[in-house]
Amino acid sequence: MIFPETWWGFLLSYLMAFIGGGILCAGAQLLIVKTKLTPARILVIFLIFGIFLQTVGAYEPLNNVFGAGISVPIVGFGASLAKGSISYAAEYGIPGAFAGGLIQTAFGIGAAVVASYIVTLLFNAKAK
User: Fold this and answer.
1) What is the pLDDT of residue 3?
2) What is the pLDDT of residue 72?
3) What is the rounded CA–CA span in Å between residue 25 and residue 99?
4) CB burial class (10 A; 0-12, 13-18, 19+) of residue 65?
């Protein structure tokens, strides 16, 4: 974050994360209300938006200002995919472009799989 490490800086970083996440949520809500897009298609739009932001170099400055408000949602996942693909393509060529995104996001995907497995062990789903 670009804010100083004081109590005011921490408060401002939380506020900016809230604003960034709120802008993304408001955009998604507008797409839900004003269009006939399904939630899955809106998710893909946000993923591609993150890839676009990383590709044109706009994601890092936005991440410095909004922090977790922009990096935690699916936009951050799309940016991570693009960042990995771009860096590995520069090093390994075409195969790196395909593998880089997966390598960059493998830890997060693995953690999500393990966490979901633990949750299924702890709780029983009941049909309505």
Assistant:
1) 62
2) 84
3) 30
4) middle
